[in-house]
Design brief:
Length: 330
Amino acid sequence: MSNTLIWIVVGIVAFVLFIFAIILFNYFQLWLQAYFSKTKVSLFAIVAMRFRKVNSSVIVINLIRLVKAGIVGITTDDLESHYLAGGNVGNVVSAIIAANKARIELDWNVATAIDLAGRDILDAVNTSVNPKVIDCPDPGLGRPTIDAVAKDGIQLKARARVTVRTNLARLVGGATEETIVARVGEGIVSSIGSADTHKVVLENPDGISKAVLARGLDSGTAYEILSIDIADIDVGVNIGAKLQEDQAQADMKVAQAKAEQQRAHAVAKEQEHKADVQKNRALVVLAEADIPKAMAESFRSGNLGIMDFYRMKNIESDTSMRDSIADDKD
């Protein structure tokens, strides 16, 4: 009985030693690396990360990077919290180190918030250190130039280059590059449109840059505009003359339409008059058709004698003869 108990105890001890050996094999090298890097992280903490489903290598390696960069105050709990929240721990740590080297103030909570918001925090820090240039308009949208018309009606085609750097304080919730491009384009159009002539713009293109830059177009965006440079400006078509030509053609078409309307009205009136003439002629024919009836009735009633009838015929014949003679003289 005692032998059996001894074997049970030996088995348990062997199992514990086996588990401990696995732990040492998997985590001791990582703990040893942290230890020689003077990074305070215990072997127990590394093992506990495994049970919390945290990649201990990611946490320890990035904590070592922070310590070697001379950044203190960020603990393994901070790194684990961001990892469990779905953030990119390595990217945030790289951004913190880059900001520290560039003497840019970047708090860990701000950096993690920017990362969780879907922004590339490392790229933002790099842009803050090394400003980038944005083309306006964006060539990828298919519009090569910003077109505007001066007061004299001449179209100008401009291209600008906007130099910006990231404003880390406004990166979360701030507008993106598309807003910068849209605002700069709007400012250029407004500045050209307020110019009395296109020659003024061509002589002083930097006036557009100064006017647009003074508008504070970076308000509410994730960037700070450093400069706006007019890269190119060309003369387009004479929009004013074209508009006047189009207006003249439109006026001519309106006048032609009114003339055609009046002509159609006159033709309609003429047709009405012709219809009235035909109607009156029909009435005359109807009246003449009643004459024989009236004469027959007069003969029956004795109001008209045969001699009266012959005299009337003679008068008609004489009248017809006189009309014929008059027509021959004409």
